[in-house]
Design a protein that fits this description.
It is built from 15 helices and 14 strands. It is of the alpha/beta class. The chain folds into two domains: 215 residues, Rossmann fold, CATH 3.40.50; 162 residues, Glycogen Phosphorylase B (Rossmann fold, 3-Layer(aba) Sandwich), CATH 3.40.50. The longest helix is centred in the first third of the chain and has 15 residues. It is elongated, with a radius of gyration of 22 Å.
């Protein structure tokens, strides 16, 4: 399973490769059992969510509003937790559920039995193969309909997951054959961002308006910083005199990690003085305010940011991304498209480099590509209703001959 996690970070890997790897893993370790007999839905739809990350984790930004806004007259919500580090976010999520099931100390068999005893109509995966996930739980078919919402990089290759929620940018219809799950698309996108209202957009001027040079930045995890991305960023730094790159990643919090990261730029001809490494900040507000130090976010590829992209946009910082060949390389493209900042989307490393240079040569372009506010659709309250409607539809899908795979556009 860890091989599949690592595979997702390799630049040349395709959706087809990820699908095949998931299918091979399933055949060896989690052969699916037949679907359970359908039971009529009488009363509320019983929907469960499984995750090892019901805590201060990026999925909470997308899950909290969905759970909070459920119509309790239509849905009964179960949360199945494998979380090893519960915190205040865990308690908040738990408060939104009708039923909380802590599976961490339970064996696979016992965990599966507990889920089956709840007689779910729909079970939603929120992790794929990442972290401490137990994807083999889904192979036992504890629910008649099973789907993936967020938390993984695209197709899982698992036949036990019937559906995957996505959009037409991350998963174009012509790529349906690359997904083991049937793709159910939300338009214009399948992400809706929850952020604390007290944490607002960038205050004051961009650094380049008061400093001599441009400050690029990246706040993504270290595995996303592959050689191809660093090669591209090195060209940008060499092409933009007096520019610098600020990196905020957990792997550089010790001396060895710092030296390794610096050496990766030094071997590309970049003076270490132009690279700044800043430590992880404990409080969310301090983390977000780190964006005040950055003029332009350089999105890594082929796994683009999701939460990091949204945080940058929330704080008023423009994002430059490379639209790639698989789901994980198109998430930032989807997010930027939803708020009309498509100038930040490029389609080759050459265009990516050129766009960065253009923005730095014309400082007005930086302001033009920074959001003045994030509202509709990334904060659209109707999104929650549409997600609920989607799960309602998928729960009833086995009872109908019509295809549930049409795209859905929420009201704006």
């Amino acid at each position: 399973m860890h091989f599949i996690q690592a595979l997702a970070y390799i630049p040349d890997v395709t959706d087809e490769d990820l699908k095949a790897a998931g299918q091979e893993w399933e055949a060896k370790y989690a052969k699916p059992t037949p679907k359970p007999p359908l039971q009529p839905i009488n009363g509320r739809i019983r929907i469960g969510y499984y995750s090892p990350d019901f805590r201060n984790h990026s999925i909470s930004y997308f899950l909290r509003p969905i759970l909070r806004e459920y119509d309790r007259s239509q849905f009964e919500v179960f949360l199945y937790s494998d979380s090893r580090m519960p915190n205040h976010v865990t308690e908040e999520l738990r408060s939104y559920a009708d039923h909380w099931r802590d599976l961490l100390e339970e064996s696979d068999d016992k965990a599966i039995t507990r889920i089956k005893e709840d007689d779910l109509h729909l079970l939603v995966d929120l992790t794929g193969y990442f972290g401490e996930a137990r994807p083999w739980i889904f192979a036992t078919r504890p629910a008649p309909v099973q789907a993936h919402l967020v938390g993984y990089n695209g197709t899982t290759g698992l036949s036990s997951l019937d559906y995957r929620i996505s959009d037409a940018i991350c998963d174009p219809p012509e790529h349906d054959h690359l997904s083991s799950e049937k793709v159910f698309r939300l338009e214009p996108g399948f992400h809706c961002f929850h952020q604390e209202p007290s944490l607002t957009l960038k205050e004051g001027s961009a650094p380049c308006e008061t400093e001599k040079g441009i400050t690029f930045g990246c706040f993504n995890n270290a595995p996303k910083l592959n050689d191809e991305a660093l090669d591209t960023w090195a060209v940008i730094l060499k092409s933009v005199p007096e520019s610098r790159l600020l990196l905020k990643i957990t792997s550089t919090e010790d001396l060895g990690g710092q030296e390794l990261m610096m050496s990766r730029f030094t071997c590309r001809g970049i003076d270490p003085s132009r690279i700044e490494l800043i430590a992880r900040t404990g409080h969310k507000e301090n983390h977000l305010r780190s964006h005040h130090l950055v003029d332009i976010i350089l999105d890594p590829f082929p796994i683009s940011g999701t939460t990091t992209t949204l945080e940058a946009l929330w704080m008023g910082v423009p994002v430059l991304t490379l639209h790639g060949h698989r789901h994980s390389a198109r998430v930032s493209s989807s997010l930027l498209s939803q708020i009309g900042l498509t100038e930040g989307i490029t389609h080759s490393t050459e265009e990516y480099i050129q766009r960065a240079i253009e923005w730095t040569n014309n400082r007005a372009q930086i302001a033009c590509n920074a959001p003045s506010e994030i509202t509709d659709p990334l904060l659209n309250p109707y999104f929650y209703n549409e997600t609920h409607n989607t799960f309602h539809h998928l729960s009833y899908a086995p009872f109908h001959s019509v295809s549930p795979l049409r795209s859905r556009r929420f009201r704006r």
